[in-house]
Amino acid sequence: MSALFNFQSLLMVILLMICTSTYVRAVAPRLVDKNKEGFLGLFFMSARIGERLSPYVALACVAMAVTILAQ
User: Span of the secretion signal (predicted)?
Assistant: First the structure.
């Protein structure tokens, strides 16, 4: 099933995008910071969310892992 039609898969894709964007911005900030608008701006916004809400993102990742392991 596509990630667009399964809510749990959609949440997992969004969490992975946030975590990956935050990591890439920490390692190579120029890659993310130069694209603040347009489609690639989604990665910039995801990195901002990951930086500012990191405890909540971490809790969401742990919760997602528990639900996947419980299935």
Answer: 1-26
